[in-house]
Amino acid sequence: DAKTTQPNSMESNEEEPVHLPCNHSTISGTDYIHWYRQLPSQGPEYVIHGLTSNVNNRMASLAIAEDRKSSTLILHRATLRDAAVYYCILNSGGSNYKLTFGKGTLLTVNP
Amino acid sequence: EAGVAQSPRYKIIEKRQSVAFWCNPISGHATLYWYQQILGQGPKLLIQFQNNGVVDDSQLPKDRFSAERLKGVDSTLKIQPAKLEDSAVYLCASSLELAGGNEQYFGPGTRLTVT
Lengths: 111, 115
Hints:
- The structure holds 2 protein chains of 2 kinds.
- The relative contact order of chain A is 0.34.
- Chain A has a 5-stranded mixed sheet, with no helix packed on it. In chain A, strands 2-7-6-5 form a 4-stranded antiparallel sheet, with no helix packed on it.
- Helices cover 0% and strands 45% of the residues of chain A.
- Chain A is built from no helices and 9 strands.
- Chain A has strands at 9-13, 18-23, 32-38, 45-50, 55-56, 61-64, 70-75, 84-91, 105-110.
- In chain A, strand 6 and strand 7 form a beta hairpin.
- Chain A is mainly β.
- Chain B is mainly β.
- Helices cover 0% and strands 48% of the residues of chain B.
- Chain B starts with a strand and ends with a strand.
- The interface between A and B is medium-sized, with 26 and 24 residues.
């Protein structure tokens, strides 16, 4: 499975934008880039996914580098409820589309 | 739309005892997953079903863990006998089908403590 690299932790202030980076230099052409987050004492929650183009949804935006070797999850205005562990995951048919979670990035949001 | 349901939410057992967890996925979701999440780590996939067939169980400790998905809907995960290192949260997830663009929906998990 192609691996991802994320910072262990990041800090942000409430109502400011947050850019969470993810490196995936060994990504293959068929790998989708998924982001999930896990709030304390809850199961993971889907945030967004993309293949080649940038994506926007009600929760966040996903910016994918032109060479696809990195991506950035953008939270446009962080709230205290966005404090969570954010996971960047690649999946493809070659791995039965399973999600392999790493350690993720622990995002702290300061009031 | 109802989410993924799991029961029980908490379970405490002694080592060498057996335990079973139940999962009811979102209606119409063909793919079901069981994950194990040890404290401080990301979830680890144990087994993946497509309808009632196993797609991937490469990380399931088959000497003590078993899982089934009857009629392609509900699923149970069993541990027999339990060891101390099985203490973890067991998460069930489902997705519409087996495809890269499909998101997985997770249940609240069952927190297992083995003493």
